[in-house]
Write a structure and sequence with these properties.
homotetramer; alpha+beta; Beta-lactamase; 303 residues; 45% helix
C-alpha cells in the first residue's frame, strides 16, 4: 500500500467531521485554536515519515506528554514508580478524585492527572528540571530543536489549575509527593504546554515502536519496558474510552485535550493525528476516526 | 524454540507457586478441587497442540465461558448487543452493582457478571438454549464430544446465586433483560458450569487466533469481530487486574474463578493454563506466572 | 390557638400547590390517584382529633409503614435489630445499592428500602405474619377496623419489584436475611400496600407522641425506645431530604411515595398530611409546605 | 434535680472511659494533650453555670467553631449562604471529596470541612477578618476576654493542611469560593484553633438555647434561624455518627476533633463536654457517654 496516498485519502474522508465535537475551552489559548484543522503523520521505525493535512502545525500536546515523562522516569529510575501509581484503568474521569480517595492516594494509572502528577514529581526528583528533560527528549527524537513549551499556555494553565492543585494537595495529604506541591504543579503544567506538530510527534514516539531504541540507535528503554508502556497506553491511554479505542482502533495510543493522539504499531511505526474537536470522552473526534480508517485499511492492529 | 520443552520448563518453574493463593470456595464443588494441579496447553492456528502438566484434567471454566457466549451472540446477532452493554473496563469488582447504578443499568463490559447476564439473555432470545449452544461450540472446536456442564456445580451455583440474582433483577429494573430473570440465571449458571481441560480450551479458542475461522475452516466471526473480542479481552478480561495482565503478559486473555485462563496470540496460537489457586484479583496465580514466562521466553506479545 | 381553624387555613393556603410535583407512577394504582387532593389531621396525645380537607380519604401509606414495622420489632424483639441495620442517614436514594455494597450488606437505616426489608424479615421471624401484625397495630391504635392492604396495589407492586428483589437478594448474599427472599418481599409489599386516611394515621401514630403508650394506655414501647424511633425519623425519615425537613419543619417525620407524611410533636400530638404530588426528593410537596406552616404558626418544634 | 450533683456523678462515672479512644494526632499540639482529662459544664438560659471536672481547662474547639461561624454568616448575611452549601447529612467522612465531586462543588452541609470552608469564605467577604469575628462573638457571649486562637495550633494546622487545601482548590474549581484559596484557608485554620474551656463554651452557645438572644439580651439570630441551626446540628453535627448521636443523646450537638462537644436543650440550656479520646467516628468517647447519661437522668431530650 502507498502510505502517502492512504494519508491523503484519510485527510479527505475526515473533512465532514472537522468542526464537530467540542474544542477544549478551559483556557483561552486552547479555545481559540481553529477547529477545522486536521493533520496526520506516520513515522516508520526506519525513520521515513509520511504526512498529510496540517501535519506541520504545532499544537499543544497536553496529556500526550505523560507518555514521554513516564518513559524518562522508567529510563532513569526503573520500576520503583509502580509503588506510587497503579496500572489499571480507572473507570472514572481523568481528573476525578473519587478513586484516589478510596485507594489511599495511589492513582489508578500514570495517565490520569493524579498519576501524571506523581510521575512529574518523581521526574523532578530525578532530573531537577522535568519539563526541560521532556523537551530535550522530544527535540532529540524528532530532530526539531525548536520544540518548546508555549509560555502563554503554561501561564494560563497555572491560572486555571484549581482542580490539579486540588489533586496535588490530595496526593500530598497521603504522602505521595516528594517535592513541594507548587514545584510539581509548575513542572507538570510546563510539560503539558509543550507544542509540536504531528510530524514531530510521530518521530518523537518512534522508540515505542522500536523496542525502546532512540533515533540514534541507543536504548532509551529496554524491550520489556517499552512493551509495558504500550500496554499501559492501550488500557489507560484514552481517558474513559480506552475500551472503545482498543475496540475501534486496536492500537496502543495516548490522547490529549489539545486534540492530538499518538498511536503505536509495535515493531512497525507510530501514527500521530491532530484535530481540535473532541468527542464526549475527550479524545479527538476526527483523530479517532482517522486512526480507525488507518487500521481498517492497512490491516495493522495488535489484535 | 521447542514449544514442548518450553511448556515442560514452565510446569517445573511454577511448582513453588502451586497451593498458594486462594481456591474459590463459594460453592463446595470448587472448594474441594486439589489446589496443587497445574496444566498448560498451546494450540497453534494450524491445529497442532502442545500440552504439559495436568493439561487433560477437566476444570470448571466459569467466566471463561463468557468469551464463547459473546462470540455466539456476535456471530448470530451482530453488533446490536453493544447497545445493551459497554466495552469499558470497570475499575470495580466483577460482581459490583455500583457502576451499574450510576450508569442506568448498562453494564460496563460483557465480562463482568452483569454484562455476561445481558449476553446470556440475548443468547437465550436468539438460540432458546444458550448453554447448549455454548457447549456445542466448545465440543466442535475442541473435537471433544464429552465436554459438558457439571450438573453438581450448576445446581450448587443456583443455590448460592443471591448476588447474581440481585444483579439480574437490577438489570431487569432498568429494562435491560428480555427474558424472565429465572431463565436468564439458569442459562448463565449452566454456561459457567461447563467443564473442560486445558487442551480442550486451547483448541476451542483457536478461532480467536485465526481471524474468526472455526476448526473446520468455516467462519464463526469476521476478522473485524474477532479483533474486537480480543480487544475487549485485553481491556476487560481479567477482572480488576486487566492493566496488570496487559503489563505482565501482554496478550488478550480471559480468566475464570475455577483457575483457568485462555490467552490469544493473534494470528498464531492460543495458550490455556489452569491452576486453582487465585491471586487477589481472582486470576490464577500460577496461571498468570506461567503466561508471563511464556511470553517473556517466546517474545510473543502484542506490544 | 384554635387548631381546627388553623387546619382549615392550611388547607386553603396549600391550594396553589395541589397538582404540582410528580405523582408516583411506577405502578398504575398510584399513578391514577387524583393529584389535587389534600388532607391534614392532628391527633392530640389525649385522643382528640382535628381534621380538614380530604382527611378521611384512604391512601397508600407505603414507606410510612416502616415506622410501625420498626416499632413492632422493637416491642417484641428489643434492640437486637440494630446489629443488622445502622441508624445513620444514607446520603443516597432510598433504593440505592451503593452504600450497601461498601458497608457489607448492613443497610444504613431502617427507613431506606434495604433496611426496611431487614426489619420486615425480622418481623416475619417474630410474628409469622408481619403485614397482619402491622395492620392489627394500625387498626387498634386508630380504632378503625376496616384498615387493610389494597390487594391491587400489593399485586402490582410485586409485578414491579425488580429493584426491591435485587435489594433483597443482595442482603441475602451478605447473609442478612433470615427468611426466604420471596417471603420477605411478599411481607414487605403487603405492609407497604396498607391504606388508611389522615385521621387514621394521626391516631395510629399517637404512641410516638406518648412515650410509647398505646391508645388503651398499655405500653407498646418504652419511653427510651420511643425517643429513639423519633430520632431515627428525624435523621432518616424523609429520604435524602431529612436535613431539609428538619430545617423547614423541625419535627420527626416519615413520608411515603403515596404522598402521606406523619410527624410527631413529642409529648403533644401527631400530625398527618397527605397530597399525592411529590417534590424532587420524593416527599409530598403540599404536605411538607403544610407542616412548615403548621410549625411556624404554632411555634411547635423540637428545636 | 440538683444539677451540680448530677455533673459530679457524671464526672465519676466516665472515669473508666478516660484514656480510651484515639487522641487526634495529625498535629503535635493536639497529640500531646493529656488524654485523661474530662470536663462538663451546663449553662442555663438564665445565665447560671454549673461545672465539674476539668471544666476550666482550655482546649482546641476545632470544628465546634463551625457553629459560631455559621451563626455569624446567617446573622450578617441571611439565608443566601444556602445557595452555596446544602443542609443534608453526607454519609461520608468529614473531609471526603467524593460527594463534592458528584454534586458539582456544593458541599453537603456547613459542618463538613468543605462546607465550613464555604462559610469561612463568606464570613471573610462579609467581615474581612472572620477568625476575629468568631473570637469576638465567643468572648462576648462567654464573658471571657482572654479567649484566643492558639498560634501554635494554627501554624501547625497550616503545615498539615494538604487535605483542606485540596478541598479548597476543589471548591474553587467549581467557582464556589469568593476569596483566594490561601486567605480562606488561613481564616479557617485560625477559627478552628480557637481555645476555650467547657465553661466558656457552654456560655458562648447559650444563644442556641435562647431563640437567638445574646448574653446581653440583644438578638444575634431570629428564632427561626436559631431553630434551623439546631436542626442542622442534629442532622449533621457529629460527623458520620449524627444518627447514632441523635439516637443516644437526643439533642442537637456539634463536636470537634479536640474532644469537645456542645449540645443544646432548646429553650433551656447548653451542655458542653470535653475529653480528648475520640471514638471511631471522631467524637469524644467520654463526652458522648456523659451526654447520654445527662439526658437519660434529666429526661431532657428533644424527642
Amino acid at each position: 500500500m502507498d502510505i502517502q496516498n492512504l494519508l491523503d485519502d484519510i485527510v479527505a474522508s475526515v473533512q465532514p467531521l472537522l468542526g464537530q465535537g467540542e474544542v477544549a475551552d478551559y483556557i483561552p489559548q486552547l479555545a481559540s485554536v481553529n477547529a477545522k484543522q486536521f493533520g496526520i503523520s506516520v513515522a516508520m521505525r526506519s525513520g521515513e515519515v509520511y504526512s498529510s493535512g496540517d501535519a506541520d502545525v504545532p499544537f499543544s500536546i497536553q496529556s500526550i506528554s505523560k507518555v514521554f515523562a513516564l518513559a524518562l522516569v522508567l529510563a532513569r529510575d526503573g520500576d520503583s514508580i509502580w509503588k506510587r501509581v497503579f496500572r489499571e484503568p480507572s473507570g472514572n474521569p481523568f481528573n476525578s478524585l473519587v478513586q484516589l480517595e478510596s485507594e489511599d492516594g495511589i492513582p489508578r494509572n500514570p495517565f490520569i492527572n493524579a498519576g501524571a502528577l506523581v510521575v512529574a514529581d518523581r521526574l523532578l526528583s530525578v532530573t531537577g528540571h522535568p519539563a526541560s528533560a521532556v523537551r530535550e527528549l522530544l527535540r532529540q527524537e524528532s530532530g526539531n530543536p525548536r520544540i518548546d513549551a508555549d509560555a502563554d499556555v503554561a501561564a494560563s494553565e497555572l491560572l486555571h489549575s484549581h482542580r490539579n492543585t486540588s489533586l496535588a494537595h490530595f496526593l500530598a495529604s497521603y504522602g505521595n509527593l516528594e517535592n513541594p506541591v507548587e514545584e510539581v504543579l509548575e513542572a507538570y503544567v510546563k510539560q503539558c504546554a509543550l507544542a509540536m506538530s504531528c510530524t514531530d510527534l510521530a518521530l518523537a514516539g518512534r522508540f515505542l515502536a522500536a523496542n525502546g531504541a532512540r533515533a540514534d540507535g541507543t536504548p532509551l528503554l529496554s524491550r520489556s519496558q517499552t512493551k509495558r508502556i504500550n500496554a499501559v497506553m492501550l488500557t489507560c491511554g484514552t481517558y474513559d474510552a480506552a475500551g472503545e479505542f482498543a475496540y475501534r482502533v486496536g492500537l496502543p495510543g495516548k490522547s490529549g485535550v489539545g486534540g492530538g493522539i499518538v498511536a503505536v504499531v509495535p515493531e512497525h511505526c507510530t501514527i500521530s493525528v491532530w484535530s481540535p474537536g473532541l468527542g464526549r470522552s475527550g479524545n479527538s473526534l476526527a483523530g479517532v476516526a482517522a486512526l480507525d480508517e488507518f487500521t481498517t485499511r492497512t490491516g495493522l492492529s495488535i489484535f
